[in-house]
Amino acid sequence: MAAGRRGAKRPLRAQTARRRGARRPQAAPLFRQTKARLSRPPRFPLQHQDKTVKAHRMELRVTDLACARGGLPLLDGLNFTVHPGEALVLRGPNGSGKTTLLRTLAGLQPALRGEISCPPEQMTYAAHADGLKSTLSVRENLAFWAAIHAAPGGDEGVTRAMAAMNLTDLADRQAHNLSAGQKRRLGLARLLVTGRWLWVLDEPTVSLDVASVALFASVVRGHLATGGAALLATHIDLGLDEAHTLDLTPFKASLPADPGFDEAFL
Amino acid sequence: MIALLLRDLKLALRAGGGFGLGLGFFLILAVLVPLGVGPDQTTLGLIAPGILWVGALLACLLSLDRLFALDFEDGSLDLLATSPIPLEGVVTAKALAHWLTTGLPLALAAPVLGILLNLPGPAYGPLMLSLLVGTPALSMIGAFGAALTVGLKRGGLLLSLLVLPLYVPTLVFGAQTVTRAAQGLDITTPLLLLGGITAGSVALLPFAAAFALRINLR
């Protein structure tokens, strides 16, 4: 049944992913998964490697992915690919698993089943919490994340990111003096200083006003134009013409959870 | 990692960062004990090593529950987990920042407080030395406890219950070093054992703490 639904709903792009014959066993724990991702050899046959290696390196490929929240399977049978210059907008009602999917893709929780293939160290994640320190100024917050990611550009990159998100006037203001929308803009400006290729964004436009949403859309567009990619869960229309949309409703997991004895009592 | 260390130091030194909290606690404890025990100098000199070490240990514990909890609440921990720094490095940098803002000031202030407790003369050097060697273990073990309790509401109490038993070896050998020095005995053995505990904690616990963090982030 699940296979039929997947076949009918093949989303988005031509599915170049090879179908896996057998279902994979439960994914390895997070730390091993990360290591495996780092050391995984190219999956293409050798003769194709020269031509496809670049494309393969810069794409997010999700194959037969199932993910769970709190031991309860939410999504099953997800297949999609995100290429450079593309944005994928995830839609679905509250509780449909958008955040769970994004956290799984970001490597913060293990997948129940399936495979995520993404170049290592090329993804950055932005969630509901912006990760700001209230006693640091706008510039210090950004400079910290720039230093953590060892992004090229350094101070200049920070200045550019502040300009892009209209924060230059607030550069020396402490983060706890910012409004909710300004904090959000600062949180989104962080994406620019990470230098990462793929942005995984969970409702990035919450508490932004109309002008800031337009500003953010233009920043995303600029990121896509330079070969970046974005995966967004959002309820509003960003006005990104080049974005594909993926509705998560058909991928709702129908299998009952089998958490086992231990988990049921924890 | 250096950026993370510098940020944590900066945060600790800014308003509300909690720097000096442990030091203040240590000072108050060292002032209150003579008031409670009485002015008998022999008794004070006898219990001084133990009091100073217990005080340093509790002072370390004070700021531990904020070590990861603050980053967890504001989402920084999620972002750090997806950053190029491995979580083991994050744990190490944060534990080092905790030691620099708590353990190191305690070790430097301890001789002054030793005077209040009538610590015998030959024990001042070993007191500082033992605290310098022992407090990194306190920060590292504490970081492990903080990583275990990071997602919990009111995890601070549980953290104390988890961490204090693990502090026992450090306390025993640390206090023993000072006591032996006060009696004019050789301090090599307890000091070496103290150093061994610290080296073992620093080598192994970042991995355990990072593993606990990964589970708590799910």
CATH superfamily of the largest domain in chain A: P-loop containing nucleotide triphosphate hydrolases
Strand order of the largest sheet of chain A: 5-6-7-3-8
Distance N terminus to C terminus of chain A?
A: 32 Å
H/E series of chain A, N to C? HHHEEEHEEHHHEHEEH
Largest sheet of chain B: none
Oligomeric state of the chains present here = heterodimer
Write the element-wise H/E pattern of chain B from the N-terminal end onward.
HHHHHHHHH
Number-wise, the strands of chain A total 8
Into how many domains do the coordinates of chain A divide?
A: 2
The CATH class of the largest domain in chain A is identified as: Alpha Beta
Percentage of β-strand residues of chain A: 15-25%
Helix vs. strand class of chain A: alpha/beta
Going by CATH, the architecture of the largest domain in chain A would be 3-Layer(aba) Sandwich
Give the end-to-end Cα distance of chain B, rounded to a whole number of Å.
23 Å
Number of strands of chain B: 0
- Helix percentage range of chain B: over 70%
Mean pLDDT of chain B: 89
Task: Describe it.
- The complex is a heterodimer of chains A (266) and B (218).
- Chain A has 266 residues and is an alpha/beta fold.
- Chain A folds into two domains: 1-40; 51-251, Rossmann fold, CATH 3.40.50.300.
- Chain A is 36% helix and 19% strand.
- In chain A, helix 5 packs parallel to helix 7 (180-194) and helix 6 (155-164) packs across helix 7.
- With 218 residues, chain B is mainly alpha-helical.
- Chain B has nine helices and no strands.
- In chain B, helix 1 packs across helix 6 and helix 2 runs antiparallel to helix 3.
- The longest helix of chain B is centred in the middle third of the chain and has 30 residues, at 87-116.
- Chain B is elongated and about 55 Å long.
- At the A-B interface, strand 5 and helix 5 of A face helix 1, helix 5 and helix 9 of B.
